[in-house]
Amino acid sequence: MTVSAESTLAGRDRLRTALMLPLGIAAAVFAALLPLARVVLPAQWMPGTVALVLLVLAAGFLARRAGLAALAVTLIETGVWAAFMMLAFLRDTALLWIIPTAGTADEVMQLLATAAEEITYGAAPLRAGPALAFLIVASVGLLTVIVDHVVVTARMPLLAGIALIAVSLIPSIVVPDDLDVVAFVLLAASILFLMRVDTLSRQAPAARAATRGAGIPATAVGIGAVAVVVTLVVAPALPQPVARSLPGGVNVGSGIDATLQLGDDLRRPREVEVLRVRSSAPLPPYLRATTLSTFDGAVWLPDEDETAVLDDETAMEPVSVPADVRVEEYTTDVSIQSLSSTWLPMPFPAVGVSGLEGDWSTVPYNRTVVSDGARTQDQDYEVTTQVPRPTREQIRADVAAPDGLSPELTQLPDDLPAIVEDLAIEVTEGTTNDYDALIALQSWFRGPEFRYSLDAPVEDGFDGTGAQAIAQFLDQKEGYCVHYAGAFALMARALDMPSRIVVGYLPGSSTTDAIERETVYSVSSSQLHAWPEVHFDGLGWVSFEPTNSLGTPTSFSAALSLAGPDSGGTEAEETEETEPSPTPTLLPEEEQNEESGEALGTTSGSDDALPALAVIAALVLLLAAPAALRSVRARRLLLAARRGDAAAAWLVVQDTAIDLGIPVPASDTPRTLAARLAQSHGAPEAAMATLADALERASYAPSGTIAAGDHDALADAAAASSAALLRNAPVARRILAVIAPRSLVMRPGSAFAGAGTHARA
Description:
single chain; alpha+beta; C8orf32 fold; 3 domains
């Protein structure tokens, strides 16, 4: 083969390798973004993102082919990014569609503020408006510029891989979900591909040809396959964190958690409208998501009964009560505004649902509706309910006995604090029937001794519903709905009455809108609620409202029943035995502030920053990990040097040189490298001579020729030389050496280390 032919082939080879890097970067960026598509619907941002990524990488490729410096390449890529963002999102405020003005800056700030609100208060999956699309496209574009620089210019694909992995994890941190296998495999494959191409690009053509056999590619494929298998097999078996979700996949941006961890959701500083509801009932009903019947001493667990197809005739059978108990039938229309869940907010007891889109099933045991794939977002549906309306005498004659029911409905932990049962007996002393005993409990909780508070539980460490938390709540008499509901349910069980907890929403606040003469009520995220139910043999489940200052307390009169939280019944005609009932909405703001310090779901503080802080912390840890590992390695080497290990002392200097991009080729002898580091890179000549002498004696002289008294001097020389190299390097290179040390993946004498980046050339 002629020299010309060889040169042509070499040129083609270099071109192919240079082209593969931006293609690999594009694949890796897109793979990292796949999990985001589950959180933010891709229709509005994906096309712009794809276009911008390809334009940035194409510009960088062409600039490098033109022989431009690395800084110029990055500036060109940044210019392409800026021009695209101007043309796509900001052209109305720019001169000639591309030249920014003062109005452009204002528009950017407005878009960022709007996007922040959409993220903070929206429900996943979000529909990206112009603001959120702007934020995503701009962020991905900048990420592409950075990754391109790190991979192609800095030659550190591993660092870029860490950054991309961090980006791919953000959606999972914010909205916990199952492993996205496809995204994981594609991202892993893309990172392996980048590392492989980077390796090839550093080799001479002959060396590249030699490594194109089956060995290295097969190894890479094997590593990837093992990683995939381990992830798929091991990950599901690992302990999973308690997700802010309902069983079956509830994942609600506005906040709902069937594990009764409602504190974070209730402490949101700003309310979001979750749904709208109107009903033919005299009062709007409470809306339940699910019920919790099992208590293990630490947490209440959601019911997991078998489901039936919603269209099945037996899915929701008519309500069965004694013949002399009046039953009222109502219809309730619900329009979901901002709630993404697989559980449907429902009035109780439902006997029919219509208007749903997607596949939905019902849990006959508790008359809830659930789906394995459909979501509540944007659903509009009508629910028919049959509400028993017993008189006070009828419910007093009924008993709350556990006969024929699941034992879990009366189960109490062995270590139940004595205060629970003692207070249950004390408060209900003198009552002659189960209903009066439960009303006594309800009235006691809603009395002056208790105060509604979202802050006190957190400050005092009982932000939960475990037995010990409930005992602390009963002692301090301050808490929010989950404490009231949990305490009421446990005290009912202590009296041998079957009980459970319901998670859902309060009826909401009336609006000025009306449809078919029915007032429309707005239900906000702050009206997330939990309340207890007790089972009566004849009437079924009866709701109670113990939470102080909130909702409608349950009571019945001789003439007309006043239903509790779920019934939506009319207000009772008061008798001397019937307690007055407030409307089933929140107290006025000023009244709330006096009684509980805050309205439901609002506090002076905010926990909305926690997801963002978690993401930031994760990124910081990921970025700090290489520096930490490098520091540990340096300390170990210096300790070895103080024990007389000359090779360890020499490695300290070599590692620092590699981190700074200084070539450390295998062809350099210790004397040669020591002289070059002293002459060209600011290392102290005396220290370098000490290290070279010690290394030569350790390599060629008989053992023990290094005196024990010289060990400290050896370590000091290594430390001084390393510090001098760092001190004399450019600031940017020094910072990069600290946060992304190349020596963790490059060994002295390797092809990578030998090439260096000529930091001071």
